[in-house]
Amino acid sequence: MEISELYKIYKSKSSICTDTRKIKKGGLFFALKGENFNGNLFAAKAISDGCSFAIIDEKKIATNDKFILVKNVLETLQNLARHHRKQLSIPIIGITGTNGKTTSKELIHAVLKSELNSYATKGNLNNHIGVPLSILEITKEHEIAIIEMGANHEKEIEFLCDIAKPTHGVITNIGSAHLEGFKNHQGVINAKNELFNFIKKNNGLLFVNDDDNLLLNLSEKIERITYGNNGFCKGFITKNTAYLSIKFSHTEINSQLIGEYQFSNIMLAVCIGNKFNIKDLNIQKAIENYTPKNNRSEILKTKDNLLILDAYNANPSSMKAMITSFSKQDYTNKLCILGDMLELGEYTIKEHSAILDLIDTLNLEIILIGKEFSKISKEAFKDRNAFEIFLKSNPIKNKTILLKGSRGIGLEKLQAML
Length: 418
Prior knowledge:
36% of the residues lie in helices and 20% in strands. The chain is an alpha/beta fold.
């Protein structure tokens, strides 16, 4: 079936789904395949549960005209998103970066939707499946969209740009993450810069952190608006005790975000708000009302301790920024419980050692969890279960605790014991 024909079907249906547990009546089911699953095997269930059509790529499944046979389901989904993008004339802001892209996306969305019908990537659907699904959720009613793009190999951002075709671009920062896939830091730079290259080729506009020399250099010959301490859109920190407060123009924002590193995320949202003519008062209210979720810099009070939970993910740059900011906070009895940083490949030992060196300079009390930290510290617990056993006979009380580690370590599961 031609994409133009499938597009007519898509336009007449209510939704797209790839998971039979989330079926919506009348929608289209795309039978995606992965290493451990084959959506073709669930296509009949999708139809019986209410989907109008199932897009499949195994001929034996096509038992009636409700099954649309294609060569490759994933490629069809991506091509359908490309076709849909061509029908949209709205600005699309592409956002990537090592740290802060999801928080920045949510802040930008909060600001823009205060006056515009804004769409933003849901959760972290930012890969070769998530981006096409996000594009296909944009309707004719939307006036602007923010599409998050993630990558762990070079050429992925370039591929996602070809689908989303952003008119505006943001790289929040470029740090050390997914080094296993990128091989080295230059690989990370090359990958993130694919967004800037796309914007340049297509005469788009960038929003660039004026406090980041690397980003300034990469964007030097591209149309841009800068933000930060000295950018075109200028602000400064007024308070960094518990939550961060900043001031821009004549407006002060008292956020519900932790850490001075959030300054650039807030200023990015302010800058984009200014560009799209959002009133300062609405920018202020939107950012002040935003609360982080999903284990991203959440402050939680337990019976015995105050927890700063930042266990959604971790890489060397985000770990260093969080620990440094935590060391400056005006808390008593501070304790860092740190989990391994994953996907660092040959840089694993070096980067974990650098975290210990940083902790030494900041004179913070620490507990380390994970097999990588165990390789360089005799005091480290080999995994979370080993630490939980220790906690049962050695409870921690009256501490302000930073919980930071990669998602695979599962530090968020310690909440009930702290």
